[in-house]
Design a protein that fits this description.
Blueprint (H helix, E strand, L loop, with lengths): L7 E12 L4 E3 L4 E2 L3 E18 L6 E4 L2 E2 L6 H14 L4 E9 L8 H16 L6 H9 L13 E5 L8 E6 L6 E7 L9 H11 L3 H21 L2 H20 L10 H15 L4 E5 L5 E6 L3 H11 L4 E5 L6 E3 L1
Parallel strand pairs: 5-7
Antiparallel strand pairs: 1-4, 1-14, 2-3, 4-7, 4-8, 5-6, 8-9, 10-12, 10-13, 11-12
Helix pairs in contact: 1-2, 2-3, 5-6
The structure holds (3R)-3-hydroxy-3-methyl-5-(phosphonooxy)pentanoic acid.
(3R)-3-hydroxy-3-methyl-5-(phosphonooxy)pentanoic acid binds next to helix 2 and helix 4.
Pfam families: MDD_C, MVD-like_N
Enzyme class: lyase
InterPro entries: GHMP_kinase_C_sf, Mev_decarb, Mev_diP_decarb, MVD-like_N, Mvd1_C, Ribosomal_Su5_D2-typ_SF, Ribsml_uS5_D2-typ_fold_subgr
């Protein structure tokens, strides 16, 4: 095990959860309350390079070309400490990261961000982790990052401790022509982070226990839908699961929501399209941006329909993306 003598670069894609993670059993280790399942997206990714250097007195983090303050780089430095502990090294690191995802608008930039950081930092520290162990490491940065190590359809097994909570691929290179259309309604930072929002749900929503039961059932249903390439079952179950998650924010104390007026309008449009016989469903994470799940052949016309209404917003078609790549 030797520290790399040049920067190591990793590229990881973000993912959209079809069955969501919303709540931790262990907030320190980030052990979730339920299994979750996602699709990795080809269009949104993070590229991060890391080098541990003897001459550095502190970690230096450059994010999209600008050096982050101590406060803004705190989570990254905490994560680097984990890697240093694992590799038994003390050198500080130079980290350069570039995000090809609208940051913190519910497009899970933390997923691709911590997955890429886990890949680059571990390899730069001289660790040669397999992908399961990489997903366990990424999990310590952000729960959704656990799944971004793999491509295609990915499950995150809840587990009960650090060893047993990891992601595994369900179908890394799906032959299924699916698309997810991201409607970027706002690229602003979200007001209530997923960390705060989910903890509030665990502690205060009277529906939390029911959410766990429903999402475990959804997990099995979506897995079956993927195996049978059953689009209606996949879309319907994913949409229901997303709304159940958002029912937790509405039923938390204090209550809040990630919906904005445009998200509600777009949800109605999805339902109207379905009534017109165009199969599509929606999902939404911890931000107002809606993601529309559809079959590849319909993606272009559905995207045009939304673009016509949301003229000044980005409407981006994405397809199943690949797992992490790490350059030597
Ligand atoms: O891992 P975090 O803190 O980015 O939380 C992710 C929460 C959701 O995106 C809403 C759901 C999920 O499973 O990705």
């Amino acid at each position: 095990m030797t520290i790399a003598t040049h920067p190591i670069t990793a590229k990881a894609h973000t993912n959209i959860a079809l069955v969501k993670y919303w709540g931790k059993l262990d907030t320190q280790l980030i052990i979730p309350q339920n299994d979750s399942l996602s699709m990795t997206l080809d269009e949104f990714y993070t590229k991060t390079s890391v080098q541990f250097l003897p001459e550095l007195a502190t970690d230096k983090v450059i994010f999209d070309g600008e050096e982050l303050s101590d406060k803004d780089s705190a989570k990254i430095r905490t994560f680097l400490n984990l890697v240093r502990d694992l590799a038994h090294i003390t050198y500080r690191a130079k980290v350069e990261t570039k995000n090809f995802v609208p940051t913190a608008a519910g497009l899970a930039s933390s997923a691709s961000g911590f997955a890429a950081l886990a890949g680059a930092a571990s390899r730069a520290a001289g660790l040669n982790l397999n992908r399961r162990d990489l997903s366990r490491l990424a999990r310590r940065g952000s729960g959704s990052a656990t799944r971004s190590i793999f491509g295609g359809f990915v499950a995150w097994q809840q587990g009960h401790d650090d060893e047993t909570s990891f992601a595994y691929p369900i179908d890394e290179q799906p032959t299924w022509d699916l698309a997810v259309i991201a409607l970027v309604l706002t690229a602003k930072q979200k007001k209530i982070s997923s960390r705060v929002g989910m903890q509030l749900a665990v502690e205060t929503s009277p529906f939390y226990v029911e959410w766990i039961k429903a999402s475990q059932a959804d997990f099995e249903t979506v897995k079956t839908a993927i195996q049978n390439q059953d689009f209606t079952l996949l879309g319907h179950t994913s949409e229901q699961n997303a709304m159940r998650m958002h029912a937790l924010t509405l039923s938390s104390d204090p209550n809040f929501t990630y919906f904005n007026a445009d998200s509600l309008r777009a949800m109605k449009m999805v339902k109207d399209l379905r009534l017109q016989g165009i199969p599509c469903y929606f999902t939404m994470d911890a931000g107002p941006n809606l993601k529309i799940i559809c079959q590849g052949a319909d993606a272009e016309r559905i995207a045009q329909h939304f673009q016509a209404v949301f003229g000044d917003k980005q409407v981006l078609i994405t397809r199943p993306g690949s797992g992490i790549s790490i350059s030597d």
